[in-house]
Amino acid sequence: MPIPTGVKVGVLMACVLVTGYFTYKNMAGPVNENEEILNNRIEYFRCGKNHEFNMPAKDSRRIASDNGGVVVCPECNGSSSEVFPCSNCKKMVDFVGHGMIPDKCPYCKQKM
Ligand SMILES: [Zn+2]
Ligand SMILES: [Zn+2]
Predict the structure, then answer these.
(1) Contact 89/108 with Cβ under 8 angstroms?
(2) pTM > 0.70
(3) pLDDT digits over 21-54, tens only?
(4) How far is the CA of 53 from the centre of ligand 2 (A)?
């Protein structure tokens, strides 16, 4: 007995939907999402001897966890703190307080 075309299309559609759903679920998982952000984000640091360096966030996380929470300078092994480049003059600006950026760049006085 031949299977009606409508049923065949319905089964095919169901397969596509199920495959699509699982693909979506795998790609949108919270772990993958965080890893993606860490892989793509570059963080900037400056050590006590004014060496400036940057690295992907995933590397800084690894180095920090190997060194008691401190990202050490690749040149002098000193401890460093995170800074960020001014979008205007590109100088490295210190965070104020806990991860807050200042209103104005201390170098070029432009609004951040
Ligand atoms: Zn250094
Ligand atoms: Zn600036």
Answers:
(1) yes
(2) no
(3) 665 655 555 567 788 887 889 999 999 999 999 9
(4) 18
Q: Which residues pair with 85 in a beta bridge?
A: 92
Mean pLDDT score of the chain: 84
pLDDT of residue 22: 61
Nearest ligand, measured from the Cα of 104: 2
CA of 93 to the centre of ligand 2 (A): 8
Q: Minimum-distance ligand to the CA of 49?
A: 1
Give, rounded to a whole angstrom, the gap between the first and last alpha carbons of the chain.
73
